[in-house]
């Protein structure tokens, strides 16, 4: 953050970040969407730096370090940051991990005691991080409030959006009662449709708003039902169909 401000870049600038949330991410604890990589990041950055500036580094290792750094710069340059952005770093973690292994192996070979101590420290820190993530990680922890041992499988699927489960259940009940087998979907953006696949096995879901070339949208008249997610469904469902607004997010129309 200090470096960012020092070079005149606002960490909250909408040109480089998504508008939701505050940066840096306040979620420092173990969380599947926000989990930081302090141990991995430190090791990878140190390995990349060592590959570029240390003496007697084989050319292929120096080249690999340079390409890894280039990949980091490219990601920073073209991807807007977001509060659930740890997934955006996976490519850099995958690229940098071999360099870490090479340096630890070299350290162990030339300075056995220091190398063994370094490996031990890394192992202890990694196990401590894994211990906290597995036992206390959100939203599917092993102990405490919200433990996977006290929630049903369906509740675990809605762990991030608990308030939406009743609406989905009402919509599914309507669809099951109607006997619908071929169901149309109208979804706003990347809203949450996949729970319907799990809660209604054996049904055929088709988009009624397809933009894929060569894949025209399904015609409502050919369907048994329509589900709308975060979209006003009244203009889509035929007037002689049964319409149910399950909640303010999901609506269903059936024949």
Secondary structure topology:
Blueprint: H1 2-6, H2 38-53, H3 59-78, H4 90-110, H5 112-136, H6 153-157, H7 165-178, E1 182-187, H8 194-199, E2 204-207, E3 225-229, E4 242-245, E5 250-254
Parallel strand pairs: 1-2, 1-3
Antiparallel strand pairs: 3-5, 4-5
Helix pairs in contact: 2-3, 2-4, 3-4, 4-5
Please tell me about this protein's structure.
The protein has 255 residues and is an alpha/beta fold. It has 8 helices and 5 strands; from the N terminus they run αααααααβαββββ. A 5-stranded mixed β-sheet has the order 2-1-3-5-4, with helices on one face. Helix 2 crosses helix 3, helix 2 crosses helix 4 (90-110) and helix 3 (59-78) runs antiparallel to helix 4 (90-110). The model has no long low-confidence stretch (mean pLDDT 87).
Q: Biggest sheet, open or closed, and with what strands and sense?
A: 5 strands, mixed
What is the 3D shape?
Answer: elongated
Query: How many distinct domains?
Result: 2
N- to C-terminal separation? 56 Å
């Amino acid at each position: 953050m200090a470096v960012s401000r020092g070079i005149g870049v606002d960490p909250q600038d909408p040109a480089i970040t998504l508008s939701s949330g505050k940066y840096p991410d306040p979620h420092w604890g173990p969380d599947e969407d926000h989990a930081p990589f302090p141990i991995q990041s430190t090791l990878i950055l140190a390995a990349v730096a060592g590959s570029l500036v240390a003496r007697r580094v084989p050319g292929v290792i120096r080249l690999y370090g340079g390409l890894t750094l280039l990949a980091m710069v490219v990601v920073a340059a073209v991807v807007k940051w977001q509060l659930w952005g740890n997934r955006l770093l996976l490519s850099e973690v995958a690229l940098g991990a071999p360099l870490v292994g090479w340096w630890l192996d070299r350290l162990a070979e030339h300075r056995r005691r220091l190398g063994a101590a370094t490996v031990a420290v890394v192992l202890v820190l990694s196990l401590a991080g894994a211990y906290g993530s597995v036992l206390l990680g959100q939203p599917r922890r092993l102990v405490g409030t919200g433990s996977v041992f006290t929630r049903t499988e369906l509740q675990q699927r809605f762990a991030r959006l608990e308030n939406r489960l009743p609406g989905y259940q009402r919509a599914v009940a309507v669809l099951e009662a109607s006997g619908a087998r071929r169901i149309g979907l109208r979804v706003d953006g990347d809203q949450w449709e996949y729970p319907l696949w799990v809660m209604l096995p054996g049904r055929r879901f088709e988009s009624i708003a397809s933009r894929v070339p060569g894949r025209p949208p399904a015609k409502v008249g050919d369907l048994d039902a329509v589900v709308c997610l975060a979209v006003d469904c009244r203009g889509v469902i035929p007037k002689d169909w049964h319409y149910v607004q399950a909640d303010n997010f999901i609506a269903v129309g059936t024949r």
